[in-house]
Model the fold of this input.
Amino acid sequence: MKGTSGNWQTITWSLGILVLAAGAGLVVYLVLFHALRRWSSRTSTILDDSMVKHTRRPLKVLLPLVAIRMVVPILRLPGSLVLILRHLTDLGLIATLAWLGIKCTSIAEDLVMSHYDITARDNLQARKVYTQVKVLKKIAVTVILVLSLASILMSFDELRKLGISLLASAGLAGVVLGFAAQRSIATLIAGIQIAITQPIRLDDVVIVEGEWGWIEEITLTYVVVRIWDLRRLILPITYFIEKPFQNWTRVEANLLGTVYLYTDYTIPVQAVREELERILRGSDLWDGRVWGLQVTNATQQTLELRALMSAPDSSTAWDLRCHVREKLIEFIQKNYPQSLPKVRAEVDRVPMEKG
Done:
């Protein structure tokens, strides 16, 4: 009975130490974050705000785990139980540190992007940096997860021995695995290449597979293109390394738009040119840089008039083209209806025979 009572007292004492250690870690967390919140409220920097936002949950778990790990060696428990508890605590620390590391990448992202406004009209540099940050963040998260998983597996003696034996007998299996992973490795390298060279960026306007849309998401393996009618086109990231495509915002977002009209030879071109200038100057869609109207072709039946105009971005250019086309057609219908396209034919008169 005394032995049993002593064991229960030892277990109770050990559990009390663990609870106190966890409580102490939680108190340190509360004090730390209280000071961090006060510091954040007194400054206008993005760093402290981001730290409060992203590290709150990981540290709430990490600090009690650290305190528990520190008191494990002094617990009056059987050696095997202490080893199990120590191992479980180490696994928790590895997982929590990985969680904290991933959150630190979000802090770095907030810190970098605080210097750029992605919502601005002229956001070329912001989109360039945003794309690099997003892709590099995904790479960093992948590396952290792989390293943490490897650390967890290597903490088990059985798995460590299994890993050594597998490496020793890798031989042919390694070659097969290398061929099987070749495509995956190429995809990962393509993702890194796109982050550095940036043939595409987030929110770029592109034409791929005959579709017009915006780059909505870039991952390590695929790219999502949001089509103009809100469909999503999913393409492997290697597509943008291996195949040609159009990028309308590679250097700048400004575009030139064209409208073609087909009229009769009797159309007064100068009048249409003056009307085009009036339409553009009265529209908020035109950016005021470029405009013009020229006769670009003449067939047997019609003249081809090309109206040229500039716009700040592709969406505005589309709306401006539609607006100009509608107004010019309305102008010709109202003022020069005789100049609308027509088909001419000559009719030979056959002489009437006298009865």
Remarks:
- The first strand starts at residue 205 and ends at 208.
- Residues 166-177 have pLDDT under 50 and may be disordered.
- The longest helix spans residues 2-42.
- Residues 1-115 form one domain.
